Amino acid sequence: MKNILRCALFGAALFATDAKAQRALSFNSGHSHNDYHQNIPLLTAYQSGMGSIEADVFLKNGALYVAHDTTEIKPGITLKKLYLEPLAGFYRQNGNRAYADSAMTLQLVVDIKKDYAKVLAQLIKDLEAFPGVFNSSKNAKAIKIVISGDVPLPADFKNYPDYISFDGRPYINYTDEQLKRVAMISDDIKNYTPWNGKGNPTTRDLKKLTTVIEKAHQQHKPFRFWATQDSPNTWIVLERLGADWINTDQPGKLKEFYFHKDKLTYTNPVAYPVYTPSYKSDGLQKPVKNVILLIGDGMGLAQIHAGYIANHGQLNLSNIRNIGFSQTAAADAGNTDSAAGGSAMAIGEKTNNRYIGVGPDQKKRTNLVDTLAGYGIKSAVISVGDITDATPAVFYAHQTDRSMSGEIAADLLDSKVEILVGSNQKSFLKNKDTALMSKLAAKGFKLSSNAADFYKEKTGRQLVLLPDSATRPVKDGRGALLKESLMHSLNILSANKPGFFVMAEGAQIDYGGHANDLPYVVTELHDFDKTVAAALQFADQNGETLVVITADHETGGLTLLDASAEKGMISGSFSTNDHTNIMVPVFAYGPGSAEFRGTYQNNELFHKIIKVIGLKNKAKK
């Protein structure tokens, strides 16, 4: 029993008695419907912090058996053995309260299938073996006993001990005295709507649902619908309607949904303005001088739409007209990591997961940066994460494992990159090649250890190694590092007559996806989108610049649920903490942007950029 007690998980507060008070539900507002049908009755619901647990009972041979009908009755499966005794153990273990967390409460709903008078007599007898544990009239922290199903007439409530409460119905007119014995008001949702849990009930049915809930709240009683669908969307709608108990057959999932609710909902009260492109050079079939490739790491359509809703129905991305889709599978797996996904774009060939700038044969491939350098085009690689991490690394390094950060850093010696911006100073400054920094200086790199110093530089090769704190999440105060680093790099590289290539990575959209943290995802998406605006403005002013925006993969399997563009509110859920095989969008703006329409493999991005930048024509010249 002690081991069972220790395994219980706990959480937040339950119903405030003033039903008119606006509040957010917690997992302690869950009602474990037909709990005895769980693979592990009681413990599954208890460990999930349910505030209400329901058991159906029949009286047979002087004992209360837990079952949905008489055919399910099995020897030893009694209310006393399955619920009363374990709950009494929890109660004592927790210092005379239902849960260790004193803010949490618990009610045991005993659903009497028939013969309430005999069943109640036996129940009262059984409860006598546990003095105080189930006597909520004397101890507010005691486990409340609520009788449902076949219950006495309201006029007879007074004939039972005051620690026995009853499950009320909205169509019964209780006196004030009778109402004192009512623990909650419940009804079958099908009496009000045929709603199947998808979308919302009709306006007419919503009125019926809110009316019955409001009536219960006017009586200062919590309300529960039974026979509801059991899904996150249903839980969201029921909460919005004002229901106080959430009926569920999935207490674990309900607990997870509410336990992580702060990471699954985001509201942006004030929208930021977006840039409206001029479209003057958009789609023109002419050689491209400059290319800005913006990679939103982990950014799928769901992440983009979440950002769109949270910015009140607008994004800079959504103003781009030419759109395609990139298929992200790696050479050795259907699901890619950032190494294989980024390498495909950087070297024009599918490769294996974890490989950095090498083919499936582990041999070095010439990347886009070095290819373009052969034609005098200078490049910058920028990230608001670790600059030796997979996505930026594939544009300057060649290694067989993305974890080889020291070797990746040393590969900069042989790269044609002109500007490198990101964090992870350690891999460079404390490299096993102790002469690495002097060698990089000999290659012409000017070291800056903060963004402010970098912004003072006007010419030459730049190595910007930021402290890790400088690339903290934007929600924690990073600021506009990505946008400002891009703009300054464009200022430096614009002096190069043959043109330039810039890859700038919104690295932490991916971090938020791995953490299953929607606010993290959306705030990083918004930071990335503001960088998109800067790129579009530059392209309009320059007239010879192509902007391509895509992702290396989607992260988190994000699903969007509730949304309000008017409020800037979005909620969702994640199916994984890993990458998925979902296609990612490709947005293109400027001359040659039509080339990026359609659906294609991610390695085609390399070849499309080469094509539109007109290297064949340059070679002839």
From TrEMBL:
Coiled coil location: none
**Residues involved in Zn(2+) binding:** 297, 391, 510, 514, 552-553
UniProt keyword annotation of Magnesium present: yes
Q: Which Gene3D superfamilies match?
A: Alkaline Phosphatase, subunit A, Phosphatidylinositol (PI) phosphodiesterase
Question: Signal peptide location in the record?
Answer: 1-21
* Cofactor(s) it depends on: Zn(2+); Mg(2+)
Question: What superkingdom does the record give?
Answer: Bacteria
* UniProt KW Signal keyword: yes
A GO MF annotation of the entry reads: phosphoric diester hydrolase activity
Q: Which GO terms describe its biological process?
A: lipid metabolic process
List positions binding Mg(2+).
297, 389, 505
Similarity comment? Belongs to the alkaline phosphatase family.
| Protein name as annotated | Alkaline phosphatase
Organism (species):
Pedobacter caeni
